[in-house]
Amino acid sequence: MAQQICAICGREVDDAARFCPACGGELQAAGQICGKCHQSNPDRALFCMNCGDDLTVQETAAVDAESVDAGAIHHLANTAAVSLPPIMEIPAPAAPSAGAPAAVKRTLAVIGVVVLLLTAGGGVYRYYTQQMTQRFLSASSLLAGQMAGAEQKLADYFERPIDTQFIAALQQDWPGQIQELQIAVDEWKTVKCPKQYLLQQQLLDRRAEAQLAAMGQIPDILAHPLAAETDGVLESLRQNMNEARDLSNNIQLPGLQMPNSDKATAVADSLSAYCSEQREIYKAKLARLEAMKAYFKQMDSILQKNNEAKTGLGAMLDKIRSGGYGWPDYFEMIDGAKSTRVNLRTQVNRLVTPAGTEEYTAELSRLLSLSVDYCDIMKAGANAESKGDYSTANKKYIEAPPLNDQIQSQYAAFNSK
Predict the structure, then answer these.
(1) pLDDT band at residue 74, thresholds of 50, 70 and 90?
(2) Contact criterion met (CB below 8 Å) for 139 and 197
(3) Fold of domain 309-415
(4) Which of 56, 111, 254, 270 shows the greatest Cβ crowding within 10 Å of its Cβ?
(5) With DSSP H G I counted as helix, E B as strand and the rest as coil, what are the percentages for the chain, rounded to 5?
(6) Contact 366, 359 (CB under 8 A)
């Protein structure tokens, strides 16, 4: 006998009964059987009243299974009616199931997202690279302009003659110029360089360092033009400037205008000429100093001989008059004194006089000439006195003392110079 299940208490009741004898609930047909717990459920139930499983899904699965079973039976029937060929053909791939298009769509969606991300990433990378390249080229162009400005200032300096004022101005301003360019180089080095310009970056770096080195050597050369070590500094300066010129010709960056180093090379020539000139001047000073030493050595000898040749002609006259000496002795003394002054004057007049000593030499020659004149006056007076011409002798003796006083005064002033 068919049975029905009470939807309230779950008790099996005869099919003819309309109400459950246990709980009094109204009865319905057996309805749906849960495929999971095998419990009967009303026809309108969506979920199993016992285990809660989805009955609609179970129903769909059951329908599919019945379709498969029916297809299988139909296939077996056809197979039985048709004989198999001797060689079995490889069956074609099964048609995709109903869920396959959704999976394909999901795969395509994932691929699309990946492609989109890659495209976006590539765009970001290209933008970043372009920005980095632009910053590097802009910074490099700025640095090149500052290097050109420093070279122009250097060339402007050396358009003037190198003198004391020039050196003082350069030594005051130049450290600031070097520091300004060094700061620019340091800032440029902080800018990231694209890979394709790494070689050009190295060349530009060397170019800047060569210019900084040359700029630092210039004040040192001007401060020590006579030192032997300056020759090495000059040679190093030329090498740095030549390197800067060659690197300027080799640097190839878009939009970059490197400075022309020909003016800087001219600066090296000016410095070399200045050092040569200063050395010639110093050499001349040394030669003049040596000449002055030789000159004054000879002058000292002449003055010493003149001092040693001094004689008291007036006192000698008193001794002659008292009978201590005769006139021949006196005349011999006067002639000796005169001969000494004449000889010394000749030596003075033959001296090689360094520049600036001409007046000094002429003054001594004049004083020696006055001494010779004094000897002549004293001899003339003595000669007149020895012959009894006292009037003439007295005139000469009156003329001689003032001249002697003049000679002694001027000679003392000469020795004090």
Answers:
(1) very low
(2) no
(3) Methane Monooxygenase Hydroxylase; Chain G, domain 1 (1.20.58)
(4) 270
(5) 70, 5, 25
(6) no
